[in-house]
Amino acid sequence: MGDHVRAVWESVQKVRTGQPLVHNITNYVVMNTTANALLALGAAPAMVHAAEEVEEFVAIASSLVINIGTLSSPWITAMRLCATRANELEKPWVLDPVGVGATPLRTRVSDQLAQIGPTVIRANASEVLALAAVSSRHTRGVDSTDPSQAAIEPARQLAQTYKCVVVVSGAVDYVTDGDKLLAVRNGHPMMTRVTGLGCTASALVGAFLAVEPDPLVAAAHAMAVIGVAGEIAGARSAGPGSLQMNLLDALYQLDETALARVRIA
Amino acid sequence: MGDHVRAVWESVQKVRTGQPLVHNITNYVVMNTTANALLALGAAPAMVHAAEEVEEFVAIASSLVINIGTLSSPWITAMRLCATRANELEKPWVLDPVGVGATPLRTRVSDQLAQIGPTVIRANASEVLALAAVSSRHTRGVDSTDPSQAAIEPARQLAQTYKCVVVVSGAVDYVTDGDKLLAVRNGHPMMTRVTGLGCTASALVGAFLAVEPDPLVAAAHAMAVIGVAGEIAGARSAGPGSLQMNLLDALYQLDETALARVRIA
Amino acid sequence: MGDHVRAVWESVQKVRTGQPLVHNITNYVVMNTTANALLALGAAPAMVHAAEEVEEFVAIASSLVINIGTLSSPWITAMRLCATRANELEKPWVLDPVGVGATPLRTRVSDQLAQIGPTVIRANASEVLALAAVSSRHTRGVDSTDPSQAAIEPARQLAQTYKCVVVVSGAVDYVTDGDKLLAVRNGHPMMTRVTGLGCTASALVGAFLAVEPDPLVAAAHAMAVIGVAGEIAGARSAGPGSLQMNLLDALYQLDETALARVRIA
Predict the structure, then answer these.
(1) pLDDT tens-digit profile of C82-111?
(2) Which of residues 7-66 of A touch B (CB under 8 A)?
(3) What is the number of domains present in chain A?
(4) Cys staple from C240: which of A80, B134, B140, C193, with CB 3.0 to 4.6 Å?
């Protein structure tokens, strides 16, 4: 565990030193909170979505995060253009297929984006099951109703199919490259009562991808960092309103002592 | 009053147990805060607005909230499709006609949506007057400049015309089905200094409509709940920044003791 | 300095008494936080962007703020229509050219809007340099990497070219009408870790333009007010999450005593 603590701390320091520009094409609900989480950690967020400029913008960014939470046609066009360009430029990118399985549109768009080839897919168990074409009877919007463990094998398949890393987030987060599997046991139950913390996790994966060459490591470190910040914030918070605020403060204050809570195995 | 306290508490418990999926087509300003209010209360929010998927999405939701705060053509199309489908599926839905009367576009869209047949219309006094085609000299954007009492008769008319429940929110909230009239005397003056608490009230009406068969009851309970949470938060807050946070915590912590503050008559 | 304190306090009181309606066409990331800042100060915000209604809406507003943070074609159309109408109606308006220089689209749109003739342009040093056609090697998204001092001469040029006031925000804010130059030395370093405080500054410039006839004065007072509120909030905050909240409370509580911190020269 000590090795993981040191490794996560080194990743955090690299983000703070490098201040990587993370290009987000994300949903309206979480734009403010994910930008703030990236800033609190030490990265530099930008939210840019027009088809006319996304390809040029991603060229000056260090990584890209595509989140399909609030879809519409012009955004889908921009997402596809930008993801394709990111691959051409060898910029790492994260796909967050919010609500895949809930409507045919979401399933189609998620599949198309996955086929372009993300570096990391981060999703909850229902979404991983839907994307892995495993029938998930419970997908309804953005909540996960499947325990994350049930999605481990579908996640491995998905990682092998798309040659990417897959993160299944839940009470325990599982991170796999189709071969290796890491479990991250950080977080706080009240985090499920704050909107968009899954989206925030995806944004942090984007930040760590900009500084860590191994996407399995980047993804695991990001999940540990948001989990630890959530634990610290949860312990100080009377409810989800204060948790949202305290989480940003915890990301800002994060140091090696706080990271002693990291549980990656 | 004791009966109302118990009834509101039962409604809250039904939301927490049932975790109804509330489909929101709402404005950009409040998406994050209304999603958080629904989560804090115990409901499950989703923000989905593409014309390509709203009809399918509302089919898996328990209720729908349409808020015209930040209008544009593609959203208007989606709102009309989704409201029509909600009626076909007998899903209850709320119309929040933000700024009706301020521009011809808002007046036209609000009228069209009202004619589709919402279950509840929640608006401030200026908006109710405008929608009831009573000339309101003061409508300017989203603030109410008319005392809510002056809108009681127009609200009754509106409720009769559209066979729906109308909520006029203000220092006192009035709720009418065109016949019965309830007054809800909860809330805190500082709530007018936080953006989107009217929109949040509409979202909570959506949550209660999912668990209470009588829309008059659902609407009154929602207004009481946000009012009580606002009172608790206001008493703890140095300004509107902390009020916004404490309101979410208060919704999360709401119990029968806190609800002793309910003033419905 | 005492004169400035009294003058800023008078401006704040005018905003609180007049409650000017500030029309914002701004980016998705900051809509909620800028609306809340305007409300906390005492102004009345509205976020309205549809081409079908912006010209009618600006007619009932006291001032306009155009911020290009999250551009797309329909919004560009609305921005141009609305800015043109504002000039016809002699309503003051602010241009916040977020990320100008980062992509050709942003540079083109910023130039077009500047040519329409804003009352005030508020930008960081990189953006002022880009807009003044001074090559800025470091523009990357919305962060400023140039010290604001280096942009003073380009800002003067820009102010002369467009016959407007230019604010270069940074650790020290510079405000010029092309002739006179004011320096505002308020603010807190942690403000750079909260998303959209530059956008919030632009929104406050909009509020002060509604009550102060001299745009140089309005812009300097707005920068002093957000700086002072940031100082008060920063001193109370463990991180950027609490700073964002405390800033709203500080704007709400702002009085002549707090404004003794004003440093305009």
Answers:
(1) 999 999 999 999 999 999 999 999 999 999
(2) 27-30, 32-33
(3) 1
(4) C193
